[in-house]
Structure formats: C-alpha cells, structure tokens
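note to self: dont lose this again. the chain is below, predicted strucutre after it. 301 aa total, dont forget to put it in the shared folder this time
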Amino acid sequence: MNKNSLLSMHDLSTDNILHILDDASSFHVSHSDWQLPCSKALVANLFFEASTRTHYSFVSAELQLGCKVADIQTGTSSVTKGESLYDTVKTLESIGYDAIVIRHPQDAYYKELENINVPILNAGDGAGDHPTQCLLDLLTMQQEFHTLSNLNVLICGDISHSRVASSNKVALEEFGSTVKFSGPKEWQRPGYEMVDFDEALPQADVVMMLRIQKERGAALRQMSDEEYLQQYGLTKQRYERMKKTAIIMHPAPVNRGIEIDSDLVEAPKSRIFAQMANGVLVRKAVIKRAFGYEDFAEGTK
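---
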C-alpha cells in the first residue's frame, strides 16, 4: 500500500493530524490558491454509495488543485459484471490514475487493496472509518476552541452504524478529550460509554448529532419522527440548556425534525455548514499529501 494513502484515523499520529489541519487552514475554500506542481495528477473517484458532501467536496478540492478528475459510475462499470474491487482498482491504476478516492459499504474494504501502489483515500467504509470527515470535524473544533485537548464531546444518535462516531472517538481520545455517546439502546456499540442525553448535554462543548442510517438497517419500532426528536433529538428546549460556548455539529445529511429541530440547523451555535466548507480544505490537504507534498510552502505560488 502506498505510504501516502489515508485509510483510517488509526494510521495518523496526533502530529500527523495537526500537520494536516495546519495545511488545511492554509487553503481557501473557493479558489485555487495552490496547485499541484506535478505534471500528471489524474484522480479517480469511485463511490459505491450515494454521497453529496464527501463526493463533491473531493471533486471541488481535486479541481481546485489542478487535478484531472474522473467520476467512475459504478453502475455502468464492470463491477456490475462481477468484477472484484481489487480488479477494478488495479485496472484504474494500470490505465494511469495516480490516486483513487473510494467509498464502499464494506467495513475495511481497503484490506483487499494492499497490492495497490497508488494512494488510496478512504471516503468512508461501512460503519468503520471516515477519516476525512473526522479531520474536518477536528478542524471545526480547533477553529472554535483553539485546541483539541480537554474537550467534552457528546455524540448522539445511531452510534452502531456510524463511521463518524468511531473515527472521532479514536482521534479525540488521542488528544485527551472525552467522548461520550447517547441514543437508543438498540444502537449501542461495544466499548462506547453511553450516557443519558439530558444529563450530559449541559457539560458538552460539542454536541454532534447523527442521522438514523436506514440504508444500513437502522430502525426503531413504533416510534414516529416526532417521538424520536423528543426522546433523542436536539430540540429547542435542549438547545437552551447547552453551554453558552458550546457548538452543534452534524456530519450530514441532516434529517430535519428527526435528530435535530429544523430551526436549529442554522442557529447561532450551529457549525453544520462550516463543517461542509472545512471539508474542501481538509480534502485539499489530504490530496496534496497523497501526491507527496507534505509542506504547504513546497510548491506554493
């Protein structure tokens, strides 16, 4: 596997993370302030699951860096004929692509790609890892609190199916922050500290809400959307009980009126759309790293 791949937050030390966040902070979200100086930068995006934010923020980052981009339509590729993931990726490598961004429903799909030589950037695997989402979450927290240490982070919702929850737990605990989880008992995850949402809410610096991942089989019997919001969601009443300095986060897509009251998506404490903007910055930094340009100054115009 190429050393510049990014597969899991387990692959990054705290120093690695801070380096990526520093690089991301040096970028701008809406124009090409730095471009890859290498002569060939062909990137393939291979998404086996629906995605808006992750997919198109990768595309935005790639284009802003001067990459030539191919969005591979898995529904019209040889995957539909039974081709393995390895053979698909090896084909892309063989015909000249220099980096490949992959989202796949299988946990740790990248273990099948150990003989691939070009960088693989994990855009989400099953309920396992989502490293670039985690990095943009960390950047959002760092912008707000100027540190990633000693924060109290409360993640609420569909914990068992969430790669966002698992990636954030790994990274934040490495920085010495406390991560607690809340949600229906049906969605608990072994080794994760589950707490009562209302009891933990007033102490939280970050309240991260998660949607119900119905596409992974998540469901609650005999509970309406309104009942879920009242029992497990962020309501206006709960919002008023948050710390004055606390922020709301959400990896999106947001199911308004289910895990969060619709009026709170753009409330003063919400950083949901700031996270989306940060996604482009982080993915620029990660793509730059994939091509071997570690220091922002290297190749800067």
